[in-house]
Design a protein that fits this description.
With 154 residues, the chain is an alpha/beta fold. It is built from seven helices and five strands, in the order H-E-H-E-H-H-H-E-H-E-H-E.
Length: 154
């Protein structure tokens, strides 16, 4: 999908209370959507940004993440889920967001769906980079939330 196409799809869906997932790894392919989200005062969150905040604050999860990164390992999934759970439940239910890079697995998608349901919230839409997990894309496409894919940047 070309930049103008996903930009217009986003504009048609977005409001200050929109809840939008940007599926796939963070990167320049989401830059235009992130910019539009900022213009609507949507909170732009990613697991990577939450991990970096925890590392900077030297919290126990941040220290565990820093140790994993120092060893050249991925940050454990349990840390990502814990940080995202903390963020999700601390925010106001009517506040909109752009959540980039999460969920990355079907298990994470099912957990996130449960969180939304528990608060009586609904996603507005999902956008997926072509590099996003096929299973996660299929999950949200089945729910009718995924209009089209966004090609990953070269």
């Amino acid at each position: 999908m070309k930049g103008a196409e996903h930009s217009s799809a986003f504009s048609a869906l977005a409001s200050a209370k929109a809840k939008i997932l940007l599926l796939g790894p963070s990167g320049p392919h989401f830059a235009g959507l992130a910019l539009q989200g900022r213009s609507l005062n949507l909170e732009h969150v990613s697991p990577a940004s939450l991990v970096q905040q925890e590392i900077s604050r030297r919290t126990p999860p941040g220290q565990q993440a820093a140790q994993a990164l120092t060893r050249g390992s991925a940050v454990p999934d349990r840390i990502h889920l814990a940080l995202l759970r903390k963020w999700f439940w601390a925010r106001k239910p009517d506040a909109g967001f752009l959540l980039e890079g999460f969920p990355a697995t079907v298990l994470q998608a099912l957990v996130f769906d449960e969180w939304l349901e528990a608060r009586g919230e609904n996603l507005t839409a999902c956008f997926a980079a072509t590099s996003a997990s096929t299973d996660v894309v299929t999950h949200y496409r089945t729910l009718g939330l995924l209009p089209r894919a966004i090609p990953a940047a070269a």
